[in-house]
Amino acid sequence: PHHSPVPSDRCLGILSNEGLMNHKCKIIIGIDTHKATHVAVALDLQGTRLAALSIPINPKGYLELECWSQSLGEVHAFAIEGTGSYGAGLSRSLLAQGHNVVEVTRPNRQLRYTQGKTDTLDAEGAARSVLSGQATARPKTQTGISEMIRHLKVARDTAVKSRSQAMVTLKTLIINAPADLRDVLDKIRGKVALIRHIAAFRPGEIDNTMASAKAAMRALARRWLWLHEEIITHDKELERLVTERAPDLMTSHGIATLTVAEMLIVVGDDPTRIRSEAAFAKLCGVCPIPASSGKTHRFRLNRGGNRQANAALYRVAIVRMRSHEPTLAYVRKRTKDGKSKSEIIRCLKRYIVREIYSQLCVPKSAQIAA
Hints:
Elements: H1 12-15, E1 26-33, E2 37-44, E3 49-56, H2 59-72, E4 74-81, H3 88-96, E5 101-104, H4 109-115, H5 119-131, H6 145-175, H7 179-186, H8 191-199, H9 209-245, H10 247-250, H11 257-267, H12 277-283, E6 289-290, E7 299-300, H13 307-323, H14 325-336, H15 341-360, H16 364-369
Parallel strand pairs: 1-4, 4-5
Antiparallel strand pairs: 1-2, 2-3, 6-7
């Protein structure tokens, strides 16, 4: 690892053997994460750069970073870019040691354009974003049920996508199949029955178009069946984990397993990181964005936040607009007020977020007191 200390006058007592060793200034460590190495830069609270360090991505490197930072001063915060990807391992290690970790978004592109880009500059920028108060988000702990749900849902989503692709391709082959084979398959009713029939094909030696068509169809049908079984297995595990984590929310009208799973992924294993209901709404992309200028005062649609969570809230709103009497009464009232259907759906999504926040993020003691 490469060390490049740049001492500060305020911290000479730390970096010099002749200084006051008992006095330590507070520092912020900014970290730019990569696949093989992480680059760290230390700043004091006045913004003076103290030192830089590069570490490998392993427990030994994490320990070296921790010891190095503590030798420079009292660590106020570790500002890490990419706590959900390349920085996940380092973030978990530092959180386990009780350090204050702050999640930092990617650097400002305009600053990159004017100042250039290096790993050290990116790490310094991460530290300065915490120093200025711009970055305040706490990363997910990634050690509990919510992380387990995320893992399973990632596997399920990719399996669903692959199953759909297999079905689309299989239908195309059936349409283009030899006439005799297509006539036989057209007489079979039911998607699963058709797929199981095709999966039992015995094409034999592939020396004609009938045999090659059967071989290709059989491969796709067997792939579909295998993925279908995998999805069923994931669904059972997800339902078990979601019911264990949020049993009350599972009984709400229009809210099913996958919706709750998506919300738990957004919240994470530490609900206290969501500071308020408005913050949770912003994470889900259902809070309005001010777009005022001069004499014009208006709000625009929020297209940020977690789009999968936003889509889950949309589905809940649509289901409730069909069969939930309190929601139907609200829709009638807002329609009389002149609201359009899309505007009513946005309002409903905000109400649904409030309900989910009270179930997932508000402690049970606070709910009882209320």
